[in-house]
Amino acid sequence: MGEKGHxxxxxxxxxxxxxxxxxxxxxxxxxxxxxxxxxxxxDISFGYFTPLQGFMGKADVDSVCKNMKLTDxxxxxxxxxxxxxxxxIAEYGIKEGENILLTFxxxxxxxxxxxEIFQYDKKEMARxxxxxDEAAHPGCSRTYNYKDKFIGGNITLVNRPKINTPYEPYxxxxxxxxxxxxxxxxxRIVAHQTRNVPHTxxxxxxKGAWFQTxxxxxxxxxxxxxxxxxxxxxxxKGDYIDEAIILTxxxxxxSGYFGDHNHLTSLTFxxxxxxxxxxAIFHAALRTNLGLTHHMFGRDHAGVGSxxxxxxxHNLLAxxxxxxxxxxxxxxxxxxxxxxxxxxxxxxxNHGKEQQKFSxxxxxxxxxxxxxxxxxxxxxxxxxxxxECAEKYGFGSPFVTEEYLEKRTPxxxxxxxx
Length: 418
Hints:
Layout: H1 18-25, E1 30-32, H2 35-46, E2 54-55, H3 58-67, E3 82-84, H4 86-92, E4 99-104, E5 107-113, E6 116-118, H5 122-130, H6 138-144, E7 149-157, E8 162-163, H7 174-184, E9 188-194, H8 200-214, E10 224-232, H9 242-254, E11 263-269, H10 277-289, E12 294-297, H11 312-320, E13 327-330, E14 334-337, E15 342-345, H12 360-369, H13 380-392, H14 402-407, E16 412-413
Parallel strand pairs: 1-4, 9-10, 9-12, 10-11, 12-13
Antiparallel strand pairs: 2-7, 3-7, 4-5, 5-7, 6-7, 8-16, 14-15
Helix pairs in contact: 5-6, 9-13, 10-11
């Protein structure tokens, strides 16, 4: 058996041999897909979503919603679904038991083996996954915007994505990632989940997790690494631009705050669901497939607003820990204590009334002002790179604007078939 991923299942790249493509797609009906589905086609095809081989059928969706498991018993927390309208089913002649050709940006991307066409109560799905059915929750809103029918079936990629500059060094699929880890000699690797530019609180979150993960291992040579796995997906106005996220995370290594011996930056295509505790479990499965042994989870992991308690994700993870192949590394907030004169954890010093948390509003105001802050808040190299990315990629802003959404270079393209 090859590389084992989540649930002990083998990681298999579902990518068609180029020599077979023309014959396999001949006569198939082309069906265009949006970016979310294209992201998930990539994730399925390269093994990020092992053991999934395609989009879920009704039985798996129902089991995930109600039991947080696939029908084969593997822990899984978020439905991976392909939505479609009745009109599209009729227009493209989609039928159970037949194949269709998924296209993106006008070019062939994947063969979809249609096994099942079904309906599912979207409010029930939202309530199960997000713990609420309020439309104000971004995950619920996404669910309610799904079309009325769903298709389950296996996916096979027929056309590899071309990753554009500056992202190409950071697209490291699971099988390749595991080779990198072996080359570095890392025995333990801890994941840092992010969709932000790093301030020093983030940096020390990673360093603290590195110390925790190293534990009893000998120190004569580097045996533990931090993998920054940046989530790249659908953008909303006000988010950091993708280029700034991925490049500034790597800048911590390039500028020496980490090193090649203990730090690596990568990306995963995923549209955040903000599912809090359930998304934490999804992240554990995803990073298991990337070959990680440990995963850091801070306060309100993958949460939004006040929908989840600070440690709800930790508590839910504890209920399935015995069925996961990755060790959680829990963390409190890292903050600045003026009395100590340093970055510290809220669980370490006893100067609670003086401690200053890294609020997102404060950090954004610092970036928007463009005035270099103290290095105890932002590493100067990181801050300079944020401003550079704003000019080079963000049309003057490090945050997503309408202009950025309209004119940005896409992270990947699906090229014409050769």
